[in-house]
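yo, DUF2339 domain-containing protein is done. seq:
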Amino acid sequence: MMDLLLIVVVVVGIVILRSYNQRLQRLESRVSELQNALAGHVPAVGMGESATAAELAETVSQFPGSSTQPSSETAAEPSAELKEAASAEAGTQEQKEEFVAPALAQKQESLETTIGARWAVWVGGIALALGGIFLVKYSIESGLLSPAVRLVLAAIFGLVLVAAGEIIRHRSEPVLANTFQNAMIPGVLTAAGVVALFGSTYAAHGIYGFIGPATAFVLLGLISLATLGLSLLHGQALAGLGLLASMITPALIASTAPRPWTLFGYLVFTWLTTIAASRLRRWYVVPSFANALLSIWPLLYVFNSDMVDMAPVTLTMLAMVAGTIFIWPGRYEAAATAAESAGSVEAEEPSASSPAGHWAVFLTRAPLGMTLTASIGAAAVALSLLAYSLLYGYPLPDASFLFAAIIATVAAFGGGRAYGAWAAILSAVAAGFGMFIALMQPEIGAELNIAQIVPQLSYLVVYAGLGLGAVFVIVGFFFLRRFGESEKPFAALWGILMVATPLTIAVISYVTFGNWTRDWLHGLYGIGLGVVLLALAEWQSRQSSESEIPLPTNILAVGSCAAFAFALHTLTHDALPTILLPVLGMVFLLAGRARSWPALPWMMVAALIIVLGRIAWRPTVVDPDELGMTPVFNMLLAGYGIPAALAVWSAFEVRRSPDLRLRNTLQALASVLVLLTIAILVRHAMNGGVLNANVPTLGEQSIYTLLAIGASATLMALDLSASSPVFRYGGMALGVLSVILILMLHLFGLDPFITGESTGRIPFFNLLLLGYLLPALAYGGVALYGRNRRPLAYVMMLAVAGAVMTFAWATLSVRRFWQGEYIPLWNGFIQGEVYSYSVVWLLIGIALLWLGARFDARSLRIASAVLVFVAVVKVFLIDMANLEGFLRALSFIGLGAVLIGIGLFYQKVLTGRKATE
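structure:
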């Protein structure tokens, strides 16, 4: 049973290795074809038994820059240009032929070839391995040989296999070797010999103890390096075997006190050997495998050692990334990658999907595996240094600087190579996440029971974070300088990283360690960052050879404004950021006169939105104790009024701008801020200079209602400039919500006629103005703006809501005139008050009738009719019963006169319409 299990394991292992070997060889063949095509070399037709001119033409047509039509002179020969190129490369002809033959040979492979030339080799390798295993097993069971003799024989057996492989390789034909690369007898024999040598050496140390750890380590390392050297002759599969053996050697050799410098020095040397071999043979899979294995060792060391020395770990990752940048694929593939990308973009231009491919091509460039393994591995190790420092009390400032060094190197990889997009992205993500962990540790340390640094050393972590953010700006500049014109999508990505990474780290640092009153360190950092980004935007704009403004210019301009806004928050407090943010936005808007960058005027929009956010966060703008109780002339006038005035100015400045979306957005924001300024000043004045939310009041709710109406108008303006279902239905939803708030709160729940709330001591500027007249005017304006732009039912709803609010304001104002500051229901009614209602209602009805005729608004005319009908009912039912003497007669006389006047008005209107018809 054990024999059968052993056989199954060996067979399955060899089958798995065979499948991987086939995949690797197919990749090698394809890469070799592309390399020969770029060099102008086309294989001869006679290299395969059944190769035809059509197949050759099809093969050549797949190469960039090759013609898809055969030559008119002969169908079996390459073109004259290709012949000339091939003759110019005569010195390297033999080396190129070995890369091309597999592609043609695989097409003509028959069942006979597969069974005779390939399966026989694989089955023979299995039989050879099983024979050796059974022989050793028999010697052990029979006691024929001692352990030492068995080990020596196993080593001799391995050497014999390696020697046999070399002898066969030298005697085999090159064409035969190229045709059957994934079933080469020399490679199979060499791999079997290497396994035998490696196994016997480890058994001599780990099982029988014949040799010590140092000797075993040296022997295993030499075997692994020799395997890597032999892989140059036998292919990438053997290189993978040698690499795996080299990387697991330290784990197989037991040591009670591993020396990290020795360990990682050996690993880096092995990795460099693999990378050098990969560069000579142009391999991509094995170096990706090497990056992954080299990154695993630091993680195992960091989290499984009592004492961690972070210096060799850091240098190991720096060596890995630097080797990827300069050795392989390094600059040797950079030019080819850029040219290939440019060619693919040009080829995709006629298709409808070319923009998407254009923006995605730089994310999928080869060698993608090497880029991802190197970037992910280095970022993971860098984060592990911070995690170990926080969990086990390692000096966090030291770990932060080492972390920054690794991430900066990965960022340099992303900025120095056209295929390093993922290195740029992953380095930025790791930088933000890692510095968040390091800088936020005082906040989360107590909850997670992690080590906290001494407060005096906290600024070292801050310096490391801010310096890392600056590195991204520097690396991005060099990328734009080198690839700004040829790599536009990638350049736009770097523009985002140059802005987002330093700002994210600076904000986290300021929130955790900053002085919220005035922080000169973060403030000067923000100013410097803003100046540098603005200068880079100007430089990038001048470097562009096209009339269109490059996207990185706009991104950098936005980033400079964001950096200045950050500096503004760090150097000022209370109301000053709210006041100065629109000033900053206005500066960028006016700068649009000198530079036609589309992003500049939109900075005013961003500034006003931030102002609204600050107002929502702190409606009093300053501390409530510092607000003052003087009506109108207090900090609210500056905190709300100055942004509103600047918003109106900005809307006036862009009134002739061709950007309709910008014009509508600024006009909407200006309207909201003006209404909000009026509302808050009235709210402050009517509450005796006190703004709080201890008890819900009509004034407070009125501010919310005005905000909802203003937001509805803003979304409507955005939808009209750039049609969007979110803007359209969101704006109408806010309008409906505001009407519901009016029905539930303004007219019932918070009505001072019901609650008895004070309406304020000032006759006109009081709670009634804020709670009823201002919403009425806002509804009227939105209804007028949405006329013929929104559904008729929605516009009618707004118009009727405005009429109802006007009616409520007039009615309650009459009661306040007669009753004073408090107008509750339980105060009763006065005869003059009852008569005044009829007069006011009729006047409102006449006004609504005139407005309905003026704007041809049927909804207003209907509202007028309803209001006049209510007045008629009131006169006949209430006035007749409650008024006496002169007031009763005057009420009926006035009603009759109004009704006759309305009749005459309608007659003239109808007559005029018939005449025009």
